[in-house]
Amino acid sequence: MIGVFLSILVTAISLLVVDILFKGIVITSFPVALISGAVIGLVNAFVKPVISVLSLPLNLVTLGAFTLVINGICLALAAFLVPGFAVHGVLAFLFAPVILSAVNTFLTKYFAEKYPSLPPAEVSE
């Protein structure tokens, strides 16, 4: 249970970093970031695999580059579901998930090394 909460917390902090870096990402408050972190986790767990399988031929033709679009779709879907979280612009749609994933991975590894007694948090992105 604590691992799930830590994963949501790390994703929320990562979203706030992405909000600072991209003008096209808007998060109105920290509670919105927490809810968005949970929704992103759910979207990545249930919707992303379906989209990935359906777009497999297109992903093969583009040598995996279409994965950027899939990640953008998942982020935009989470933004659509959470009031106070918005994605505007093509650059934010394509590259914000990449930065989100990088920051999320960094923070997850940082907390795992700093506090090894805590249960592992799963990376959302």
Automatic annotation (TrEMBL):
Annotated transmembrane regions: 24-46, 58-80, 86-107
Keyword set includes Ligase: no
Cross-referenced InterPro entries: Phage_holin_4_2
Signal peptide: none
Keyword vocabulary terms for this entry: Membrane, Transmembrane, Transmembrane helix
PANTHER family membership: SLR0284 PROTEIN
Name under which the protein is recorded: Phage holin family protein
